[in-house]
Amino acid sequence: MKKVDYSAILQQVYDQSKAFADEGKVADYIPELSTVNSSKFGIYLHTKDQTNYELGDRLESFSIQSISKVFTLSMAFSHLKENIWERVGVEPSGTPFNSIVQLEYENGIPRNPFINAGALVIADILLSHLKNPKEELLQFVRALAQDESIQFDTKIAQSEKESGYHNASLVHMLKAYGNIKNPCEDVLDFYYNQCSLSMNCKQLALSFSPYASLIEPFDFAGIVLSKSQVKRINAIMLSCGFYDESGDFAFRVGLPGKSGVGGGIIAFHPHEYSIAVWSPRLNKKGNSARGMKALELFTTLSGQSIF
Ligand code: GLN
């Protein structure tokens, strides 16, 4: 790939995306998330030659929310291998991340592991297979990011638990179809904790560099994935990483990635780089408004997307 001046490009991304700083709204359906300063913006780029480029609030931790679904999918896939697809699909849902309607039509098999229903099934799988699911998740993420300081944010988890009627509905619906084996309360407790993982842009960029195959083999804290398994996870990020905006993200940015309602987005270019952005205001689809724009600018200005 042709050499580009990443420092200059990130500065342009930072400056030009400012125009979008007031677009969107901070998530407030989880009350604790709404306490964040909405003007925060950070960006961190980690390249294949281990060089880092960074700007803004990239070292400030935030709630990674649905980005955690990639980590839990990786753990469940490593344990269950191909059997995992009996309980969750791999198709884009075309519906919002917390939608419940499709689940009834499709008999309790969620379309993919990145909508909430799918992530709840993955959480259930981990509860069935791991002795200390929360601790093992933490160890896995710390190993990926090479950072032992990463923690759950119990205030956020508690806040979501108190207001999580939607997720409670989903897990009960799944249970009614026989696709949840553990008590609903236990599944929700694990799920809220995984979503509350608190990370900064640097930790996110580093933790996704193994998915970009910048570090091989994929073997972190006992979670081992083959090249083919990593390929499959990356494919689901491309097709389902942004819910019913996944097509638009591929169209505008052209990278696999994953978003969360904390305003974080991770994306990567296989064998080249991983890049994390954070800006808490969300668009109508629940993805960071300025973050989406920043990544679109980045791949446009650098001329580096997977297409
Ligand atoms: N914890 C959030 C929820 O379940 C995660 C959603 C997201 O980041 N898209 O609603």
Give short descriptive properties of this protein.
12 strands; binds glutamine; alpha+beta; Beta-lactamase; 307 residues; five-stranded antiparallel β-sheet; three-stranded antiparallel β-sheet
In short:
This protein has 307 residues and is of the alpha+beta class. The chain is 44% helix and 14% strand.
Written description of the protein model:
The chain has 307 residues and is α+β, with helices and mostly antiparallel strands. It has one domain (6-302): DD-peptidase/beta-lactamase superfamily (Beta-lactamase). 44% of the residues lie in helices and 14% in strands. It has twelve helices and twelve strands. The chain has a five-stranded antiparallel beta sheet, sandwiched between helices. The protein binds glutamine. Glutamine binds at residues 65-66, 97-98, 116, 160, 167, 195, 260-261, 286.
Number of DSSP strand runs: 12
Global geometry: globular
Q: Could you state the order of secondary-structure elements as H and E?
A: HEEEEHHHHEHHHEHEEHHEEEEH
Q: DSSP strand (E) fraction? A: 5-15%
**Under the CATH scheme, which architecture would be assigned?**
3-Layer(aba) Sandwich
CATH class: Alpha Beta
- Average pLDDT metric: 97
Strands, helices and their partners?
Layout: H1 6-17, E1 25-26, E2 42-47, E3 52-56, E4 62-63, H2 68-80, H3 101-105, H4 116-129, H5 133-145, E5 151-152, H6 154-163, H7 165-176, H8 184-195, E6 197-199, H9 201-208, E7 218-220, E8 223-225, H10 227-240, H11 246-252, E9 257-259, E10 264-269, E11 273-278, E12 281-282, H12 289-302
Glutamine (GLN) binds at residues 65-66, 97-98, 116, 160, 167, 195, 260-261, 286.
